[in-house]
Amino acid sequence: DRQTLVAVLQFLRRSNLRESEEILRREARLLGDDLGGSVATVASSSPGVAAVAAVPPGKGGARAGTAGSLRRAGPVVVSHCIFASSFRLSYKLLLHANAFAVGGGVVVEDQPDVSAVLSAYNQQGDPTLYEEYYSGLKHFIECSLDCHRAELSQLFYPLFVHMYLELVYNQHESEAKSFFERFHGDQECYYQDDLRVLSSLTKKEHMKGNETMLDFRTSKFVLRISRDSYQLLKRHLQEKQNNQIWNIVQEHLYIDIFDGMPRSKQQIDAMVGSLAGEAKREANKAKVFFGLLKEPEFDVPLDDEDEEGENEEGKPKKKKPKKDSVGSKSKKQDPNAPPQNRIPLPELKDSDKLDKVMNMKEAARRVRLGPECLPSICFYTFLNAYQGLTAVDITDDSSMIVGGFADSTVRVWSVTPKKLRSVKTAADLSLIDKESDDVLERIMDEKTASELKILYGHSGPVYGTSFSPDRNYLLSCSEDGTVRLWSLQTFTCLVGYKGHNYPVWDTQFSPYGYYFVSGGHDRVARLWATDHYQPLRIFAGHLADVTCTRFHPNSNYIATGSADRTIRLWDVLNGNCVRIFTGHKGPIHSLAFSPNGRFLATGATDGRVLLWDIGHGLMVGELKGHTDTIYALRFSRDGEILASGSMDNTVRLWDAVKAFEDLETDDFTTATGHINLPENSQDLLLGTYMTKSTPVVHLHFTRRNLLLAAGAYSSQ
């Protein structure tokens, strides 16, 4: 709305952020210089804006100074929910980047001003009648027709929370307690954790600084309801003159109305359960380039680098048929693929090309998996891991395995007969003949050869690890708030990236190297490049910790899973959120993209694996079977099988081909979210493999489709 816009423009002008003011002006098509209205009037008319309008000159100046100095350091991209609630919903300030690959300083405002946020709960209505209002609505919904009842029942939870918080804020503690005790048992089981937090908020003072509370207040709870059901509700509330509930519906809920048949209880249950309700339908409308980038073509003479003559003849022979098939695949550009130069990707080095050739040769011997041909599974059990195993990763060529531990160490093992060796010291390197054929072998110091290397540097548990595709680097992230980049040539730390102020839960390299992503307790994911010490992008929007991160195979998108029970897909180019997936009933702990880039599998503490069609923004499957948190998901190299690993000590294999065939992705389904999931996911379960007492924390398919699994044996 215009008032909000005017307040933001005036704030930017006062803070000397002229460039940002111009960008916002252009986007809002507000070209005249006269902003109209004074800050004071805007502030008093809109409680949500008070936080911005009332910045004392001193503070504004200090902040402007910081912004100014950071501005000079480079471009700024902030897709943070800046300022107060109305701004979070109205405008994302994206201060555009000059060029993608240049990192810049980032200015991120703190949480919206607490008093401004809470002031919306000013006294309305008689506190003694709240129970009556709520039970009246409950009676009306329970007596309505079956087709409307399921949809209108979605109102119970958000109304219950807001009415309770309103009572607490206005210091009607006994009424609030009685209201909570009477109705909390009616809420859906998947809101139990939120209700536990809510039950601890019994005084007005408790509400300040409570993150869950602020989230609930500042993000409108989204309900998707058919037009018929909505009209029914509106008529009822107006007839009863139940202004209390109608005010909450209008102020705190976002009702996404669609035309057509109301959804069934099953369809609604599949989609709800996140901290802020469902995703708005517009949130999943943006175009996503989910296709794969064209593979570079290389010349066959790369094989000259091999020494044995017989092998030299053998190699091209093996490679040529494979080359043709790869060539024919990649000659046609995938219509859903992003432009090749949409984001700058690192150039292939000769060693990368050699690795691709090896990959093709391995792929030629790959086992074709399916329901009749399941993979063998090789399980790496970490025994006596008293240090507490907290993260695992395996290199793409399956030659090394890394463990992150709660004692803050990172341990790297070689799982082939080839030992891990460091490069020789500078003095020894100067003696080497640099022209010799085996110079890469000569620079390695045999005296350092061992099966295990321990990397010290973090000062807290290590929660995430990731090998670079070229196996030269390793990333680790920790409770200490840093992400570290280690060299696998010298086994030393090269860089410590500081951006998160709280624990970092996950980090992952892009499939092309160079870029990596991290996500943490501060609720944002950050995109980095190895040669920039500041993040290139900040992806903000989740309402709780970002617990896991994954790059799309084409590296143009990043998926993040969160404790707010949603999964978001972010565009690396501009920092925009292009998909929001809701349906899990607990924090998300694992993500996996299908090799063709079309689908995403997600696992959470609710023991369910959900499958998503990225192009249409729809849930297309639900795999039930696990009884505990799913920490690992991986598709086989050809995408025929999905493997899931859980804290219930099992690895399960699912038929991915069958799960994704005959999908209902017509326009009606996409528009309304009337998804019909198959009743029985047991038809898709191909096998369950139990360990004795080892939770599964990582899964990896080798280039020939052998499944590797890893976890630490737990004695209890």
TrEMBL record:
Keywords of this entry: Nucleus, Repeat, Transcription, Transcription regulation, WD repeat
Matching InterPro entries: LisH, TFIID_NTD2, TFIID_NTD2_sf, WD40/YVTN_repeat-like_dom_sf, WD40_PAC1, WD40_repeat_CS, WD40_repeat_dom_sf, WD40_rpt
Keyword Cell membrane in record: no
WD repeats: 382-423, 455-490, 497-528, 539-580, 581-614, 623-655
Record's compositionally biased regions (Acidic residues): 300-311
Pfam families: TFIID_NTD2 (PF04494), WD40 (PF00400)
Annotated ranges, domain TFIID subunit TAF5 NTD2: 125-253
Skewed-composition ranges (Basic and acidic residues): 323-334
Keyword NADP found: no
GO molecular function: RNA polymerase II general transcription initiation factor activity
Subcellular localization: Nucleus
Disordered: region residues: 300-352
GO CC aspect terms: transcription factor TFIID complex
Family label: Belongs to the WD repeat TAF5 family.
Role noted for this protein: The TFIID basal transcription factor complex plays a major role in the initiation of RNA polymerase II (Pol II)-dependent transcription. TFIID recognizes and binds promoters with or without a TATA box via its subunit TBP, a TATA-box-binding protein, and promotes assembly of the pre-initiation complex (PIC). The TFIID complex consists of TBP and TBP-associated factors (TAFs), including TAF1, TAF2, TAF3, TAF4, TAF5, TAF6, TAF7, TAF8, TAF9, TAF10, TAF11, TAF12 and TAF13. The TFIID complex structure can be divided into 3 modules TFIID-A, TFIID-B, and TFIID-C.
Known partners and oligomeric status: Homodimer. Component of the TFIID basal transcription factor complex, composed of TATA-box-binding protein TBP, and a number of TBP-associated factors (TAFs), including TAF1, TAF2, TAF3, TAF4, TAF5, TAF6, TAF7, TAF8, TAF9, TAF10, TAF11, TAF12 and TAF13. The TFIID complex structure can be divided into 3 modules TFIID-A, TFIID-B, and TFIID-C. TAF5 forms the TFIID-A module together with TAF3 and TBP, and in TFIID-B with TAF8. Component of the TFTC-HAT complex, at least composed of TAF5L, TAF6L, TADA3L, SUPT3H/SPT3, TAF2, TAF4, TAF5, GCN5L2/GCN5, TAF10 and TRRAP.
Protein name as it appears in the record: Transcription initiation factor TFIID subunit 5
Organism lineage: Eukaryota, Metazoa, Chordata, Craniata, Vertebrata
Gene this chain is encoded by: Taf5
